[in-house]
TrEMBL record:
Pfam families reported in the protein's UniProt record: DegT_DnrJ_EryC1
Identification of the protein by name: dTDP-4-amino-4,6-dideoxygalactose transaminase
Cofactor(s) recorded in Swiss-Prot or TrEMBL: pyridoxal 5'-phosphate
Family stated for the protein in its record: Belongs to the DegT/DnrJ/EryC1 family.
Organism of origin: Pseudonocardia sediminis
Keywords, comma-separated and alphabetical: Pyridoxal phosphate
Lineage, highest ranks first: Bacteria, Bacillati, Actinomycetota, Actinomycetes, Pseudonocardiales
Residues at the catalytic site: K180 (proton acceptor)
Entry GO MF terms: pyridoxal phosphate binding; transaminase activity
Length: 377
């Protein structure tokens, strides 16, 4: 089975991990600091807080933003459920706003219409690796007294209007799952230009522990003393995984370039297939393509999916609209809420895309898609 995504591990990656295994620090050590610094260099030079997953990054970011009961979070439904569930777990009400028909990203007009006096965060998603429409989203969020969060799980290494992902929002969350644009096996990060938001993220990542003598309420307790002033969790990324991340970052540009080549090859091969729509890219976007979201326009998405799977092509669908999940349905969310996102979902199938994918494999997948729709030789 040809997978739709796969990690790219080199001998240098193995050596980097092995070196940490022979050191004094398996976690909470210098490799984490180095990875955060390395990642900052690719993310606008801002503060970075490494955590254990992309979901953890969302939870930490919402916590740093002070999200809690009584707050509203406006976000896209065309995303993995964690974009919404991480806010809901903190007690927020999630308000889903529809997406732009071309990119599948949060539509600024729909987001503006969804704002309430209680909105504290507007969370856009870089669907498939295409950056959000940052300027209008940032403006409408700030005008409402809210923060802009960019769920950039798909797009590390991408740019929008010349600015890198990580430099577009008040909070940016990243994911380093094996199929993502770089990997730490499991892992994620929160990026922010705000020192206070970064400090809040660091605190929540580490149980909310306070060790600074000047901040302790009981500083005379003893040199061992530490306190928790606000609840947090253990979302610390181990040094072993951080070392893998630093090694992977040295190849991020090469990964992104190869993903772009594969993307363009699919575009060319499928350009004349009237029954499908290839992914859109807006002027000024330099996506770090994580997915190749092909859209099937004639209602045969499932048939194409099964046709390809039967022939050993590991296609995927990204994503079921978040509020279709029973956990949201049980809270009163109903289908039909975001019709553009729902239609996008009904059409979408993700073709294989990862740096080690050979041109011959891209051509084989493309030929099978063409065969399914009756386009010969």
């Amino acid at each position: 089975m040809l997978p739709y995504g796969r990690q790219s591990i080199s001998d240098d990656d193995v050596e980097a991990v092995t070196a940490v295994l022979g050191s004094d620090w398996l976690t909470t050590g210098p490799a984490v600091t180095r990875f955060e610094d390395d990642l900052s260099a690719h993310s606008g030079g801002h503060g970075v807080v490494a955590v254990t997953s992309g979901t953890a990054a969302l939870h930490v970011a919402y916590a740093a933003a002070g999200i809690g009961p009584g707050d509203d979070v406006v976000t896209s439904p065309l995303t993995f459920v964690a974009t919404a569930s991480a806010a809901a777990l903190l007690g927020a009400r999630v308000i889903f706003a529809d997406v732009s028909e071309d990119t599948g990203n949060l539509d600024p007009g729909a987001a503006k219409a969804a704002l309430t006096p209680a909105t504290k965060v507007v969370a856009g998603v870089d669907y498939a690796g295409h950056p959000i429409d940052a300027e209008p989203l940032r403006a409408l969020a700030h005008d409402a007294g809210a923060l802009l969060l960019e769920d950039a799980a798909h797009s590390v290494g991408g740019r929008w209007q010349g600015r890198p992902v990580g430099d577009l929002a008040d909070l940016t969350t990243l994911s380093f799952f094996p199929t993502k644009n770089l990997t730490t096996a499991e892992g994620g990060a929160v990026v922010s230009p705000s020192e206070s938001l970064t400090a809040g993220a660091r605190s929540f990542r580490n149980h909310g522990l306070v060790r600074d003598p000047g901040a302790l309420r009981f500083p005379d307790e003893g040199p061992w003393h530490q306190e928790v002033h606000a609840f947090g969790l253990n979302y610390r990324l181990p040094d072993v995984l951080a070392a893998l991340g630093s090694s992977q970052l040295t190849r991020l540009e090469a990964f992104s370039a190869r993903r772009a080549e594969i993307h363009a090859r699919y575009d060319t091969a499928l350009a004349d297939v009237a029954e499908v729509r290839t992914p859109s890219r807006r002027e000024g976007a330099e996506p770090a393509w994580h997915l190749y979201p092909l859209r099937v326009l004639d209602g045969r998405r499932r048939a194409l999916f099964e046709f390809l799977r039967e022939r050993g092509i590991g296609v995927q669908v990204n994503y079921v609209p978040a509020y279709w999940h029973p956990v949201f349905a049980d809270l009163g969310y109903r289908r039909g809420l975001c019709p553009v996102a729902e239609e996008y979902y009904r059409q979408e199938v993700s073709l294989p895309l990862f740096p080690a994918l050979a041109d011959d494999d891209v051509d084989r997948v493309s030929a099978l898609v063409r065969e399914f729709f009756g386009y010969g030789g």
